[in-house]
Amino acid sequence: MISLNKTIAYTKNWKHTFLIALLLGAVVPVLLMTLEPFDSSNSFAYKYLILSGYAFCIIIPIVSIHPIENYVYKVQTNRWFILNECIYIISTLFIIFVFSFFYHFFVVSGLSSFTSELIWNFITSFGLPFTPIVVPLWLYLRSKYGQIEVPSYDKANTKHVKQITIIGNNKSESLTIFESDFIFAKAQQNYVDVYYNTEHGMQQKTLRSTLSNVMKQLPKAWQVHRSYLVNLDYLKTVEGNARKRFIRITATEETIPISQLYYKALNNRLSNSSQELQN
User: Fold this and answer.
1) Which stretches are transmembrane (predicted)?
2) How many CA atoms lie within 13 A of 277 on its CB side?
3) Which of 20, 197, 257, 278 could cross-link with 181 by S-S, CB 3.0 to 4.6 Å?
4) Residue 39 pLDDT more than 60?
5) Alpha-carbon distance 240 to 224, whole Å?
């Protein structure tokens, strides 16, 4: 089962968002002109020009929603989850359907009055048939141009400032530590092993929980792999190649596998940290 709290790549760049909007905006008019579904084969004045107008029904919502999704991305400390992507796609798709309805109603059909039932009939009869074509391409483009960002190293973040309590599925299971003392967590079936720093070195506590539940309680935790959460302040090296990638963190010799997107982001973090130390 896919965790809705899994971090995925996010398309933050305005240039890429415009490009995605333009590509998707071109798909629907081309389909209408070539396949001629829904009686679009009927001849009428300026047919191709009018059908091309559907592109704006896609471009405008995607571009208009981008500042909102960028704000959510920033609030979530530059993290984008599968749940965010699902909400974004569904809500933006609905707005696209509504824009397309009004364009179809007033411009293409030239009608003067409508009801909510007409909107719903349009969505189910005209909008949904295009969904299996547009949405997979949309998701592919957002993944292709998206990236994962990780915060730069900040020495102030390593100081003991804030205490947090991690609670397992059983309320009696809990762990209270300084936020900066969390090192990494590892999922083991229905349990999560939490490793943290103490005066006597690294300690470990096992909680009956899921990785996604633990991540909600750890602001400094980054899910670099489906089975691991890591405090990036303990990042030591990024190693591996295109087929096998992993990181090493201080306080342990255990290697932690990472995804390809994190490989690039963590390499950039280490590179920037080294430059800051040299300056």
Assistant:
1) 16-33, 45-65, 86-106, 118-141
2) 10
3) 197
4) no
5) 14
Whose CA is closest to 104, among 157, 62, 51? 51
Q: 10: which strand partners?
A: 147
Q: How does pLDDT run across 187-199, given as a tens digit for each residue?
A: 988 899 999 998 8
Q: How far are the Cα atoms of 55, 179, 233, 261 from residue 81, in angstroms, in the given order?
A: 28, 22, 22, 14
The model's confidence at residue 43, banded by pLDDT at 50, 70 and 90, is low
Q: Give the residue range(s) of CATH 2.40.50.1020 domains in the chain.
A: 155-278
**In 10 A of CB 201, how many CB atoms?**
8
Query: pLDDT value at position 44?
Result: 56
b/e map 17-35, b = 16+ CB within 10 Å: beebbeebbebbbebbeee
pTM score over 0.70: yes
- Answer left, alpha or beta for residue 250, where phi above 0 means left and psi between -120 and 50 means alpha: beta
**Closest CA relative to residue 190, chosen from 217, 170, 210:** 210
- Give the chain's mean pLDDT: 83
Number of helices (H), then strands (E), belonging to the chain: the values are 8, 10
What is the third-level CATH fold of 155-278? Answer: OB fold (Dihydrolipoamide Acetyltransferase, E2P) (2.40.50)
| Cβ contact 37:51 at 8 Å | no
- The residues near 162 (Cβ < 8 Å, ≥ 6 apart) are 178, 179, 180
**Other C-beta atoms within 10 Å of 99: how many?**
18
Distances (CA, A) of 68 to 81, 83, 250: 15, 15, 38
d(CA 264, CA 13): 17
